């Protein structure tokens, strides 16, 4: 009897957790609708929903057990595009972060939406983000990918340019519907990540999960630890990882600048 009670309690706890996550998604929808209404009523710019607000709702969808969350997430992104294009809300312009959140909804899709997610995943890759097109900046074998000059020019980037999180999440979603995708889909995604210099630890990990045999054939042997079988991103070709490395260097510099500013403010207050 005690065992049965414990099992029932565990089951009830699991159901409660799922209900809480579902409630979070529903609550996020309600808060967004309330925010949009308040902005329409007051015109207060502080209440105008922006891409970060919409992205927060998408993240709630990704965690939810709603069987139709992918459709809801896609509709929300479409609404954002309409609001931006019509001039109703310039702050609603979808960014790559928004599409990454949408892709994460695809990666966590439930069986009821498998076919819809399959079509949407391919449409996002080919029509929305066009990840299979060559990168605007092509890195050749003889290019110095460690060059930090002209980093200021990198501050202005295409807001829909796929990043490491895009490629990793596409591969994560692809592993859910692997048998229904074109045979060349996974290799094309990884090749696109290599061309864009967006191969990170997460991208390699999802690549290995999605296509283990192809992973073994593609990752250079010198990047694999013979003792553990684990890969090292630092040993991958630099042209595969240059954009990720540059982003990390830029983030480190921003943190240093922020720290220096804080120190300067503290010094001036003395």
Percent range of helical residues: 55-70%
Report the end-to-end length measured between terminal Cα atoms. Answer: 69 Å
Number of helices: 10
List low-confidence stretches.
136-157
Order of helices and strands: HHHHHHHHHH
Q: How much strand content do the residues show? A: under 5%
CA-atom Rg in angstroms: 22 Å
- How would you describe the shape? globular
Architecture overview:
By secondary structure, this protein is mainly α. The protein is 63% helix and 0% strand. It is built from 10 helices and no strands. Helix 3 runs antiparallel to helix 4, helix 6 (164-174) runs antiparallel to helix 7 (185-196) and helix 7 packs across helix 10. The longest helix is centred in the N-terminal third of the chain and has 41 residues, at 2-42. The chain is globular. Residues 136-157 have low confidence and may be disordered.
What's the structural blueprint in terms of helices and strands?
Layout: H1 2-42, H2 51-63, H3 69-85, H4 96-107, H5 114-128, H6 164-174, H7 185-196, H8 201-210, H9 212-218, H10 238-269
Give a nutshell description of this structure.
The chain has 270 residues and is an all-alpha fold. The protein has helices at residues 2-42, 51-63, 69-85, 96-107, 114-128, 164-174, 185-196, 201-210, 212-218, 238-269.
Protein traits:
mainly alpha; 63% helix; 10 helices; 270 residues
